Amino acid sequence: MSRFDGEFLATANEIISRYPVARSAMIPLLHLAQEQDGYVTEDAMEHIAALVGTTPADVLGTCSFYEMFKREPVGRYLVNICTNISCQIMGGEELLHHAEETLGVKSGSTTSDGLFTVEDVECIAACTEAPCLQVNYRYRHRISHQEFDSMIEDLRSGRLDDEVPPHGTVARIRQHIPADRAAGPADPVATPEPVWLSANASGEETGS
Amino acid sequence: MTITDAPKIITGRFGFDDSHTLERYEATGGYDGLKAALARKPSDIVEEVKSASLLGRGGAGFPAGVKWGFCPPGVFPRYLVVNGDESEPGTYKDRLLMERDPHQLIEGVLIACYAVGCSQAFLYVRGEMALAQERIAQALNDAYAAGHVGKNIHGSDFSVDVVLHWGAGAYIVGEETALIESLEGSRGMPRLKPPFFPAAKGLYMQPTIVNNVETLSNLPWIISNGGAAFAALGAENSRGTRMFAVSGHVKNPGVFEVEFGVTTFRDLLYAPVYGGGIRGDKALKAFIPGGASAPWMYPEHLDTPLEAGTVGKMGTMLGSGAIVAFDEDTDMVKACLRLVRFFARESCGKCTPCREGTTWLEMILQRIVDGHGRPQDVDLLLDVADNISVGMAWPPTQTTICPLGQSATSPIASAVMRFADEFEAYVGGPAEITVEVKGAAFVGPVGEEAPVSA
After folding, report:
1. Nearest to B144 among A80, A178, A192 (CB)
2. Which residues pair with A120 in a beta bridge?
3. Are B62 and B169 in a shared domain?
4. Could you give the number of structural domains in chain A?
5. Which residues of A touch B159 (CB under 8 A)?
6. CB-based contact (8 Å) between A6 and chain B?
7. Which of A19, A67, A206 sits opposite B39 (nearest CB)?
């Protein structure tokens, strides 16, 4: 399993249909591949290339630029600890070291049971809640070493399964544009001046 | 203290647990601004926003209404791209606006599309912000069903799709041309300006307006209450209200919406209703006034108002509304290393001065912190920084396509000029500084004459 199948293929096509140029769907589709398989496989990149009309090398080029895309398996839980300035001065580096010691891995690596990958990350926009972290992109604010340990226990035991989906799933709610409500994508070469603009430009008053 | 009773223009619904729902939004005046806008000519709406003097809230601080006017006449389609890629260190406000009041943002997007004549809008949310993506997806689904978005909005001839798009982890994508590259499916590397000013040649080489989340979130209130009411708040170029994230060593870190232009740094850091003072009642050593890219400010600057022009003249900036306080015990060399390391990691690699320069700065600082630094390394830091941003002036000179590289020189010049003694303690010898630093904010220790005048 690594090309899109079933529901994932239908979602991929729905995402592509929202853009005037299919290649714009590249990053959302790479996320979708990661959601399906936990990481981005080579087969998935080839399939994405075919779906958006480009080469697999082009997809790899985009994929390799962005930190969220993993091209090899990571843990079921990606623990991203912020060590940037606001967190650094509030104990973020100590929290990272505690995590490394507790889990027995260095930043960037995965525990042998395949459950946890630890990363030292840049600012995740929770600066007033330092030190902070994300587990599969779900926030934990002002976290103490003790709270970190209980979070790990809760993740291990499955107590947080409802809140924290496995790595790869970011948003669990998707946008759907109903066909009868869609204005449609605006083709860059064949979209005229919008009617609400042209009608008003001709001096016509639409009220106050 | 200059704490005012200015209304909460964009955070007014934050007190409700269900502030993100369509029900709450509609019950509190939601989509009234859009309805009012649709009853007027698009050109009137542009004028209304111009009269509000709404400065862009993303970092560069360009007036939003003026930016809209840069689209060349007669060239269509035009696109609107919402910059929700908040990632400047210290910055925390757009995520709150997306999570807690997504409909307010969507309404702002629609008002902008109507005014400018954009045929499609893309709402680019930072990849790591799962909850913001979920809240916006749900809000869009509900808004489509209710007739607020899509075809023939509110029964008018105004039709536009708002598409949720999301990133995948890259600070540089917050730069508007890199954002457009990313939205086209590419690596997020900035484009050269000119010719690629987005308003002229943006998404798919068409006229494109890129506006920040906070900027757009102000539009429903401006249309409902009038640009004049917005401009009546604040001072000089800084009108309305603005969100500031106060983090670091304060007793009560938080995100506060305050009257722009008149509230001071002292208010935000020390007032009991805001930061509440430095924790442990320690002394303040320095603070970052506008995100990692901004030159630092010091205790003697606390009474400066949060006014973009005033702060700019002092040689730094309000940037993205990110204030980080350092207490007297902070190791400024380590703080400098962490900030520079950020820029080194996030450099996209397109321009040599930034790619090589930030990497070398990080390596030199790392060896200083590790105890292997040499006294001449302190001057070497300035020398490398001077090659990224020649003269280290303010506004900075640019040797690269985008401002990322020069941003890394702000913490270097700030830390070296002000806290040379801390570097000397690390390197075990006097730091002989020969490189000339021109930015007004890059001052030496209090009580001494600044090494180089502004």
Report:
1. A178
2. A81
3. yes
4. 2
5. 183, 194
6. no
7. A206
Taken as a whole, chain B contains a residue count of 454
Nearest by CB: B42 against A171, A173, A200:
A200
Question: Which CATH number is B275's domain given?
Answer: 3.10.20.600
CA distances from B339 to A154, B64, B191, B307, B343 (A): 33, 29, 25, 25, 7
Of B339, B289, B299, B296, the closest CA to residue B319 belongs to B289
Same domain? B210 vs B241: no
A92-151 residues touching B, CB cutoff 8 A: 122-130, 134, 136-139
CA distance B186 to chain A (A): 5
Residues A40 and A100 in one domain: no
pLDDT digits (tens, 9 = 90+) for B332-361: 999 999 999 999 999 999 999 999 999 999
Shared domain for A48 and A94, answered yes or no, is no
Question: What is the CATH number for A117?
Answer: 3.40.30.10
| Cβ proximity of B254 and B246 under 8 Å | yes
Q: Which residues of A touch B289 (CB under 8 A)?
A: none
- Which candidate from A134, A182, A207 shows the least CB-CB separation from B150? A182
Q: What would the pLDDT profile of A130-166 be if each residue is shown by its tens digit?
A: 999 999 999 999 999 999 999 999 999 999 999 999 9
Distance CA B167, CA B121 (A): 16
CB contact under 8 A, A177 and B144: yes
Quick check: is B3 in a domain? Answer: no
- The answer to whether residues B323 and B340 belong to one domain is no
- Do residues A71 and A64 lie in contact, with contact meaning Cβ atoms separated by under 8 Å? yes
CA distance A24 to chain B (A): 4
B120 and B54 housed in the same domain = yes
Cα–Cα distance between B335 and A3 in angstroms, integer? 45
pLDDT digits (tens, 9 = 90+) for A27-52: 999 999 999 999 999 999 999 999 99
| Chain A from 57 to 96: CB within 8 A of any B CB | 61-62, 65-69, 80, 83-86, 88-90
Give the CA-trace dihedral at B348, B350, B351, B352, to 10 degrees.
90
Cβ <8 Å between A186 and B94? no
Asked whether residue A103 falls in the same domain as residue A145, the answer is yes
Residue in the block written with tokens 């060239």 = B75
Q: What is the pLDDT, as a whole number, of residue A199?
A: 86
Give the percent of chain A with pLDDT over 70: 96
| CA of A121 vs chain B CAs: smallest distance (Å) | 9
